[in-house]
Amino acid sequence: MAGFREYKIGSRLFGIALGGSMTITLFFPSINIASVSSTDIALTKQLSVGHESGFNLDDPFMLGKNKPLSVSLKVDPMTNQPIDGGMQVYVYEKGTSFPAGILHPRILGEGIQELSVQQGHVTDAQKNVGAVFTLAKGTYQGKQYSYIDNLTATKGWTPADVMRVAKDEDVSDAGKGKTMFIREGCWWCHTLLPEETQDWQVFGAPPMLGDFNGESPTAFGSDRKAPDLLHVGSRNSSKEWMMMHFFNPRLVQPHSIMPRFDYLWGKTDADGKKIDFAKWRAEYNDYREGKRVTPPDVPSYASDSEIRGLIDFILSLK
Ligand code: HEC
């Protein structure tokens, strides 16, 4: 009989623990995620990366298709007049899927949502036409917010207008690059999440909750075997260094364990010439064995190559 009493006590304690934890979970959430406003970082990330950069039906093989381009605009595409200080715009060619904040402005947060819909006309954006977006500043109920402005609706700028005046060096393919970052598994070794420890001093400030509104997927990383990359573009903004490091990390870090990503160059270089990887590696081995004084040059990359997107993405991590 004593055993039965213990069973009763045990089951009551179990009930109290379960009920208590369910009550806390259901009725006392510590934070209501829907009430977190997007930071400028979240808005910029959404506009530059676009819709979903992991596996999805728009890009089943994760080739970086269906992505916007970030353009640093120097002249007004309508008047051809220079724009003072330039202007950052995000070009969604016809057929490109829009990010979560355009499809569901509610996730942008109070004030940003209202301004983006009422002044920015984001809900007028049409996928079968394409659209150009930018970040604008506005006031809602006496408070200042950044919001998303659909320039196609508010100024009549089409993707074609913007791309006509944009030079290749003003264009960043960071959206495609984030798909590369995920597909290539950079996150097995690298994090995008400095933590609130001594990390601050080395890798920079940790992100804020509102930095992630609408991002899909986030790429925090698993455990860290390599430097955190959230602010890598502020430490090192050299395209040339990135090219050497991705082609073969040992060119710049002799004992690096990072794999080479030379195949992201594709078959041909910037001039359309076939890249001879076997020759390059043979010359590199001669260099390692001391038979050459300098390593072979890293080929220039084509403007639509996968490595271009990846480098644009890494350098956009400021
Ligand atoms: C096997 C683990 C591993 C993988 C996978 C890996 N890396 Fe690295 N990475 C490292 C290590 C270790 C370092 C530090 C040594 C060096 O610079 O090579 C590094 C350094 C870097 C740096 C320089 C960091 C700094 O603080 O300056 C960048 C940028 C970088 N990696 C990007 C990438 C990207 C992008 C990918 C995916 C395409 C990737 N890495 C995949 C291990 C890895």
Question: Which labels suit this protein?
Answer:
five-stranded antiparallel beta sheet, 2 domains, alpha+beta, binds heme C, flat, Cytochrome Bc1 Complex, Chain D, domain 2, 318 residues, 12% strand
The multimeric state of the shown protein is single chain
Q: Estimate what percentage of residues fall within beta strands.
A: 5-15%
**CATH level-four homologous superfamily name of the largest domain:** Cytochrome c-like domain
Task: Determine the structural class based on helices, strands and strand pairing.
Answer: alpha+beta
Mean pLDDT: 94
CATH topology tier name of the largest domain? Cytochrome Bc1 Complex, Chain D, domain 2
Count of folded domains: 2
